[in-house]
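[step 3/7] fold_predict: job queued, chain A
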Amino acid sequence: MSDSVTGQTADVIVLGAGIVGVSAAIAARQRGLSVVLVDRREPGSETSYGNAGILSSGSMLPLNKPSLWSALPAYMTNRHAALRWDPAWAIRNIDWLVRFLANATPSRTKPRATALHGLIGASLKLHREWIVKANAAQRIRETGWLKAWRSDAVGAAKEEQAFLAEYGIASQLLDRQAISALEPNIVPVYKVGLLHTQTASVDSPGAVVKAYARMFAGSGGEIRRCEIKAIVPDGEGWRVVLAGGGISARHVVVALGPWSADLLRPLGYRVPLAFERGYHREFRPNPARSLQRPIHDAEGSFIMTPMEQGIRVTSGVELTARDAPSSFAQLDQVVPAARSVVEFGEAVGEPWRGALRSLAILWSPAHRLHDRPCNGSCDRSYDHGKRATLQRRAVFARPLPLMADKRQTRGLQ
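[step 4/7] structure written:
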């Protein structure tokens, strides 16, 4: 183990400079390992750029929870803002869909929620520490985030509040008047709200990742921007083949999100995760009627977040092929609903699209992945059905700080 990269070798190579990869790289450097972080783009430029910016204390329920069954008829129409799906994709991935639905039971939901709770708590703690160390403390807001219902959904709000309380997570139940006092500049369309008081948010997720990357580089880590071609066995370790050569290391962390499977497939690994795509668009805010915190419109299935460039409206989940043409149907559906709550102007830039299944896989001689032998053996560290940048098992620090759901809305709550 060494503190610096020598020639074309390192202790650890991290592939992917999103929030997962950058976090893994920082954690490895903190243990005195030499680390090279590699991505084809600048840190924080892919899916980590486009999320709702919420550092959530209570997003513990997986998407495939028991309540999914009651919502399924509406989702099957393929017109719901929360979920759009490609029939051809569904046919090709029928095995994954069956497994996904089979896990939507109380007995399988509780253990996953408990595991996510442990990861979330430590992730929040590290985020609050790292954002200060990375000289980006001005980007964090400790104002909580608000989940709001237009209907008289007191029962649903109380049920969620009770669930959070089981894990020691504080929240406040709000009526219309209390919501107006909390957010005086929005139109009073919500009858019920649940304020997650222990949650924070940031005004630019991509900028936070870039700040963490600068902190990593300042600690002696190396960042390389180039195309990643392959991973091949190399003695007791691995060699990463790059467009401009290669690097050898004892450990390789694969944190390339939806592109991870392409790199792993030649090594014989079949990772059973599908892609979730999501969209956002930003709009010029009215400075006289500002939004103080992210608001999740529970029935509209979208989130509005005050960001550095404006109000970011984030839509639900789209299940389709990773590289399928963009469909802005969900954004088109939710933006008018957002305008009925918050006053904002014209769009800033083009609509954004991101893809999830974010993976963070540690290739280590100490462990194995799915009992498949390799050089030494391999350990897995990726999301099991909840969120992309959110609450994966850690590689070097348990857990790594991860940006709360890239698209916190998910829409399947």
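[step 5/7] annotate
The CA atoms of residues 318 and 327 lie 9 Å apart.
DSSP finds ten helices and 20 strands in the chain.
exit 0
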